[in-house]
């Protein structure tokens, strides 16, 4: 994820300043739990949705709709219920900042 | 793209090195050599390979990582039941370790570990060389408790009565046994009491063998002899598949605790039930942590599994040694699965990087398990769960209200299952 070619310079510098913060590491770890299906850098293999560089509001709405049951799903509704609204916001912010 | 990722990583590393943000030198990042802290990872499965990749990535290529793995390439247990059923091939489930070395700069040593000196922090390899470490990550998977089945010590018994519970040569050999079995024969699958690797795996295997029989040897039977009281995972979904799709082929018998095997007569002997003779025996023995973990004195839970600190995966028995994957004493409702080992690998990698660079370890790890089972060639059922650290209980606990299983087997999840496999292999190895 910390990758000049994949991450914009502004995002990179912002990330660097946050590198040492415990919160940033917590969010990075939480986001990494998504990458088994959605790709190490948020770019998914064929057949799964890529998350990298998607608009934050879109990502957040999707996850909240999974959580509430508004958006039909096979599995994501069950996973989304495992996260607080704040955590979903952090995940949306994180993946939106990754380069497509 | 992958090479660019690594080059990019080095670029960022140089930047960080110059700014001193990480406190790590990156001059030898391309080879993993040099004077950075040393991490040795033992076992290149879902846990170990993921940990090796992520320690490199998250240390910005400043920590040297050596991965010790005896096999030439990664062969996935998930999807291997489809090879046994004849609808996938070994090449479909095999991935090279090349990207770990070429893209991420992991040093790969094809060898086995003979001994670990926890005091001196040295891994001694069977090939004779020594690997010193600052932190050791052990991901040795499971080994089988054949001592509980005395007949399996007989000459040739383990070559004829297969487990096929580590994907590889036995996967191919079991397939050949099923192909050679005459129509009208019986395939008997003995399942050990939980905990064992991949709770739904045996039941998926029964489906895959039944699918093969239904199309090629319709007079044949799949006899499931379960050491547990009942189906341990996705029970109603598997039972529905057996009743609806494989009626007359699959027979399930619970409470069949295996006591011994007579390989000469192809007979299973049970603690409380009548013996069963079959044409093809598939015995999945009881399991414990991988040999090297037991030998190193890390299997502190019932002498079978390794107790760990779930914030770091550091062993509770030895400092600077972390244990991940199927070898650990699991937290409540945490399965022994490839997906879970991948999640352990990342959580452990983050902690190891933090510990070696003077950062605070994440106090709130949260991760998930996702497990798909094929009940036919196309139709799949899943189980999913989310696990978060509970500071009061000092373990990972399932998040209340999260998780669940499929409503019914379906083809859409069959496509997701294959995408999941491609994804988890890539996240682990590519």
Description:
- The complex is a heterodimer of chains A (100) and B (430).
- With 100 residues, chain A is mainly α.
- Chain A has a single domain, classed as Cytochrome Bc1 Complex, Chain D, domain 2 (Orthogonal Bundle).
- Chain A is built from six helices and no strands.
- In chain A, helix 2 crosses helix 6 and helix 4 runs antiparallel to helix 6.
- Chain A is globular, with a radius of gyration of 13 Å.
- The N and C termini of chain A lie close together (11 Å).
- The N terminus of chain A is likely disordered.
- Chain B has two domains: 219 residues, FAD/NAD(P)-binding domain (3-Layer(bba) Sandwich); 140 residues, FAD/NAD(P)-binding domain, CATH 3.50.50.
- Chain B is 30% helix and 23% strand.
- Chain B has eleven helices and 23 strands.
- Chain B has a five-stranded parallel sheet, covered by helices on one side. A four-stranded parallel sheet of chain B has the order 13-12-11-17, covered by helices on one side.
- In chain B, a hairpin with a 5-residue loop joins strand 15 and strand 16.
- The longest helix of chain B has 19 residues.
- Chain B starts with a helix and ends with a helix.
- The N terminus of chain B is likely disordered.
- The interface between A and B is large, with 38 and 58 residues.
What is the secondary structure topology, with strand pairs?
The complex is a heterodimer of chains A (100) and B (430).
Chain A: H1 9-18, H2 22-32, H3 35-38, H4 56-68, H5 76-80, H6 85-97
Helix pairs in contact in A: 2-6, 4-6
Chain B: H1 2-19, E1 38-42, H2 46-58, E2 64-68, E3 74-75, H3 80-84, E4 94-95, H4 98-102, E5 107-109, E6 113-117, E7 122-125, E8 130-132, E9 135-138, E10 142-144, H5 157-160, H6 169-180, E11 186-191, H7 201-216, E12 221-226, H8 235-245, E13 250-253, E14 258-262, E15 267-270, E16 276-277, E17 280-283, E18 287-289, H9 291-295, E19 321-323, H10 338-356, E20 366-374, E21 380-390, E22 395-398, E23 404-405, H11 411-429
Parallel strand pairs in B: 1-2, 1-9, 2-5, 9-19, 11-12, 11-17, 12-13
Antiparallel strand pairs in B: 3-4, 6-7, 7-8, 10-18, 14-15, 15-16, 20-21, 21-22, 21-23
Helix pairs in contact in B: 2-10, 2-11, 7-8
């Amino acid at each position: 994820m910390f990758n000049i070619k994949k991450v914009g310079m502004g995002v990179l510098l912002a990330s660097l300043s946050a590198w040492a913060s415990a919160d940033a590491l917590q969010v990075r770890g939480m986001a990494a739990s998504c990458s088994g299906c959605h790709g190490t850098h948020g770019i998914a293999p064929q057949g799964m949705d890529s998350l990298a560089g998607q608009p934050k509001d879109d990502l957040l709405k999707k996850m909240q709709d999974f959580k509430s049951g508004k958006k039909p799903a096979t599995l994501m509704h069950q996973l989304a219920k495992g996260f607080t609204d704040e955590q979903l916001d952090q995940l949306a912010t994180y993946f939106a900042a990754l380069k497509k | 793209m992958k090479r660019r990722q690594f080059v990019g990583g080095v670029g960022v590393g140089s930047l960080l090195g110059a700014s001193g943000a990480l406190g790590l030198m990156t001059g030898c990042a391309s080879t993993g050599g040099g004077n950075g802290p040393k991490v040795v990872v033992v076992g290149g499965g879902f846990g170990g390979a993921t940990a090796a990749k992520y320690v490199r990535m998250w240390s910005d290529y400043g920590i040297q990582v050596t991965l010790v793995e005896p096999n030439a390439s990664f062969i996935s247990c998930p999807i291997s039941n489809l090879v046994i059923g004849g609808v996938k091939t070994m090449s479909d489930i095999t991935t090279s370790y090349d990207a770990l070395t070429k893209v991420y700069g992991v040093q790969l040593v094809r060898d086995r570990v003979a001994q670990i000196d926890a005091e001196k922090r040295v891994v001694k390899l069977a090939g004779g060389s020594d690997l010193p470490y600052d932190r050791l990550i052990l991901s040795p998977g499971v080994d089988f408790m054949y001592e509980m089945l005395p007949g399996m010590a007989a000459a040739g018994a383990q070559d004829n009565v297969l487990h096929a519970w580590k994907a590889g040569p036995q996967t191919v050999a079991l397939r050949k046994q099923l192909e050679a079995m005459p129509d009208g024969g019986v395939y008997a699958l003995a399942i050990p009491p939980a905990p064992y690797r991949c709770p739904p795996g045996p039941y998926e295997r029964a489906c895959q063998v039944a699918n093969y029989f239904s199309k090629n040897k319709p007079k044949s039977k799949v006899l499931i002899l379960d050491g547990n009281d009942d189906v341990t995972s996705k029970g109603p979904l598997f039972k529905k598949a057996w009743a609806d799709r494989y009626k007359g082929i699959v027979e399930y018998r619970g409470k069949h605790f295996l006591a011994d095997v007579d390989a000469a007569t192809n007979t299973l002997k049970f603690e409380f039930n009548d013996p069963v003779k079959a044409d093809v025996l598939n015995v999945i023995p009881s399991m414990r942590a991988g040999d090297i973990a037991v030998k190193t004195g890390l299997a502190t839970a019932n002498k079978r599994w390794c107790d760990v600190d779930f914030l770091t995966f550091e062993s509770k028995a030895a400092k600077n040694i972390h244990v991940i994957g199927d070898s650990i004493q699991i937290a409540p409702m945490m399965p022994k699965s490839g997906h879970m080992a991948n999640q352990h690998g990342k959580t452990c990698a983050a902690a190891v990087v933090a510990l070696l660079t003077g950062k605070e370890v994440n106090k709130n790890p949260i991760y998930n398990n996702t497990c798909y089972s094929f009940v036919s060639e196309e139709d799949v059922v899943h189980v999913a769960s989310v696990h978060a650290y509970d500071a009061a209980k000092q373990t990972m606990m399932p998040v209340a209200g999260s998780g669940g299983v499929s409503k019914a087997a379906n083809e859409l999840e069959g496509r997701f299952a294959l995408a999941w496999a491609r994804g988890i292999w890539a996240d682990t190895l590519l």
